[in-house]
Amino acid sequence: MSATVVPTEIRRTDAPRRAPWRVAIAVGLAALVAGCGSVGVRDEMIAPVTGGSDTALLTPKTDAEHDRIVASYGGVYDDPAAAQAIARSVGRLVAASDDPAQSYRITILNSPAINAFALPNGNLYVTRGLLALADDTSEVAAVIAHEMAHVTARHAVARARRAEAASEVNRVVANVMQDQDAQRLALASTQLSLARFSQVQELEADAIGIRTLARAGFDPFASSRFLSQMARFADYRAHRGIGGSPRNPDFLSTHPSTPERIAFAVRAAREIGAPGIGEQEKDQYLLGLDGMVYGDDPTEGFVRGRSFLHKGLGIQFTVPQTYTLENTTKAVLGTDQTGSAMRFDGVALPPETPLVDYLGTGWVNGLDAGSIKEGMVGEFTTATATARADGWIFQICLLRKGRTVFRFIFAAQEGQPSLEAALAETMGSFRRLTPEESARLRPLHLRLVRVKPGDTVERLAEQMGGTERKLDLFRVLNGLGPTDPIEPGRMVKIATDS
């Protein structure tokens, strides 16, 4: 969570801007719970639905859209070595693509998420988190070739056209059909059709990308290898909470399941040749990652296990044992295996404005005015309340630190276990960071190590300072399965804060 968003978010409490925060709490947290276990391992084809001609559909306000994307992903990651690692493959891929005349602009986003996506005009985006997870140039090239395929196959136009048609169908259904069950069935059928349409596009982009990869001289099996790598990372993240389990595939997901994509990618590569063909460029790629920031950006604060620490804000708190935290540019989010969720963020508020008054300014939907209570957590004044909306219950706590008000919001569906204990435990852990703790708080970086004779996976994993579940993370970062050994001479990635 960025300290810099605090002064700007206060604008959202003004009367004309209250509605978005009502949606963010009553709907956004519910969506977070529904997506429990998702870790951002995905790719997207971002397409504006503007109507009109194909030209209109393919010409969004690109500068504004680019700026929005960059801002939402923590800015641009400026690292010449990482940029060079990508640049080595792009020219070869463009020359080998279905449309060599298409121009591309590639941006590395300063986000730990594992993500890549494309705009229809050729703007391609990859996160530093994705670059850190990849193990060689061919794997990154596989991702870029997939995104190029979305552009050259004009998937954005096709998807926008289908979305427009679906929107019209939904409007007619809502206006004409009086039978609510029949209406819901028709709307669900339309949604399923759209989801399947997108899945077909993803597999088509996989096939085109793998062919492009091979024509460019890269290992065509890199696509299936990196998809497997992403699956291992998703499994690692899903199991961070006690008793957690991987998320079941979403029936209406716009992407095929990962096992399906892996199997498809292997078949597509085998049609080209046997394993071992094409270049991988492993060591050259890994050397470009040496020193890269890994995980949270320092300006956004740090997640360390179940704790969130922010050097700039000078604060720390810890969530209950069953919760898993994720830091974003706008807020710190938490989920647990029971289906509950948490959001933490901050707004600027004049000291003379009472917290109980701020609770009633309209940013909370379904607020129970009778539940509002004032209190103290250590040296900090607080106000707590309960809200209910659309089958969800919310436990809210505001905590004042100077001109900043921190907001903790816990959410669960009605009928689930009470959230009061989780909120109380989290609030009880809230405190200031000491100067010594702030001084010790450093970001993680990737360090490259050459495996020596006698080294073991366990011994190398012990070097992963500032991380949790060191052995599991070491295996995931280096593309190792649960029992894979490590060969002497190989270069491996170590994430450490030392």
Give a concise summary.
With 498 residues, this protein is α+β, with helices and mostly antiparallel strands.
Topology of helices and strands:
Elements lengths: L5 H4 L8 H17 L7 E4 L8 H4 L4 H11 L7 H17 L8 E5 L5 E4 L4 E5 H6 L3 H16 L2 H22 L3 H36 L6 H17 L19 H13 L11 H6 L5 E2 L7 E3 L2 E4 L4 E4 L4 E5 L4 E5 L4 E8 L6 H5 L7 E11 L2 E10 L2 E10 L2 E10 L6 H10 L1 E2 L2 H6 L3 E7 L6 H5 L8 H8 L13 E6 L2
Parallel strand pairs: 1-3, 2-4
Antiparallel strand pairs: 3-4, 5-17, 6-7, 7-8, 8-16, 9-10, 10-11, 11-15, 12-13, 13-14, 14-15, 17-18
Helix pairs in contact: 5-7, 7-9, 7-10, 8-9, 9-11, 10-11, 10-17
Description:
The chain has 498 residues and is of the alpha+beta class. Helices cover 41% and strands 21% of the residues. The protein has three domains: 39-287, no CATH class; 301-439, Mog1/PsbP, alpha/beta/alpha sandwich (Protein Transport Mog1p, Chain A); 442-496, Membrane-bound Lytic Murein Transglycosylase D, Chain A (Roll), CATH 3.10.350. It is built from 17 helices and 18 strands. The protein has a seven-stranded antiparallel sheet with strand order 9-10-11-15-14-13-12. The protein is globular and about 70 Å long.
- The percent of residues in helical segments reads 40-55%
Number of strands: 18
Overall structural domain count: 3
Q: Between the first and last Cα atoms, what is the distance in angstroms?
A: 23 Å
Kindly report the average pLDDT value. 78
Instruction: Walk across the major sheet and give the strand order.
Output: 9-10-11-15-14-13-12
Please report which band the strand proportion falls in: under 5%, 5-15%, 15-25%, 25-35%, 35-45% or over 45%: 15-25%
Radius of gyration: 24 Å
